Amino acid sequence: MHFMTKSKLAVDIPISHKVNPINNAWSTNFLGLTLDSTLSYKTHIEQQSCKLHSACYVIRSLKYVISTKN
Prior knowledge:
Elements: E1 15-17, E2 20-22, E3 27-30, E4 33-36, H1 42-62
Antiparallel strand pairs: 1-2, 3-4
């Protein structure tokens, strides 16, 4: 994970293990929480909002097909 400050002054430091280079990651998923390089929740919120929009669409679509009891 490549961390940087909020001013986004990125420093490109090549890291390698033996001969293989290790690529920088700008976000990571840790225990179900997605963190980006500035340790903010913006990436996580964007991902979760896409899932919530899909769920709301399904519920709205099924509202007319399924009874309220179900």
